[in-house]
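Re: the request from the purification team.
They wanted to know what the chain is likely to look like in 3D before they choose a buffer screen. I agreed to run a prediction and write the result into the notebook, where they can find it.
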Amino acid sequence: MAVRRPLIAGNWKMYCTRPAAEQLLTALKVQISGLTDREVVVAPPFTALETAARVLAGSSIRLAAQNLHWEPQGAFTGEVSGPMLKELGCSYVIIGHSERRQYCAEIDEQVARKVKAAQRDGLVPILCVGETLEERERGDMLTVIRRQTQGGLQGQEKAAIAALVIAYEPVWAIGTGRTATPDQAQEVHAAIRATLAAITDQDTADAVRILYGGSVKADNVDGLMAQADIDGALVGGASLQVESFARIVQFR
């Protein structure tokens, strides 16, 4: 089985001006200095990416964007392309987050195009999947997860799949204070890995890092990270507070 390096990513969503980003990251660098056995990524809003890149220069913290367009350039008002993000110093990009699916009507076909574009432009996609409370209560949870996983990876080669990251974010747990139990999260993570094995092979599936997201906090991260198929976390609100995010990064 592949050894998967844990990955903790902070999704800042639409928070933090440039001065706030500089202050947060300057403090975070001090708090988590010396950690080498896990990877740390932050995803500020577009307006703060350049500031974040400057502050993080020379550190081990990697930079992510929260979205991209599938074309490298063009008449797409309000969009940002992979080459633009790469130029700013991004290594990762979040794709298919439930808030994009819900508020911007993103569908699996668009998500798949963005995943391919990210890899084309030298960025590692963090592909997000997750069910709503209604879908879970209806018993459609795993069907939705499999559909989103397969849909987001349409047309991808094995090597490309092995190199990306998947984040399971139950929509009912995002920003609600409700968190899936470690067992609930593990069940879905195992299903995602089984889906990956079905569309590629077991070695490829074992290489993919699968993160959990959904009200991850300092007081629940240890239990989540103890699960066999949970390789990290995609953290929302807690990533905006230095002490809480540092503790999540330093999970035991």
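For the purification team: The chain has a mean pLDDT of 95.
Please add any questions underneath this entry.
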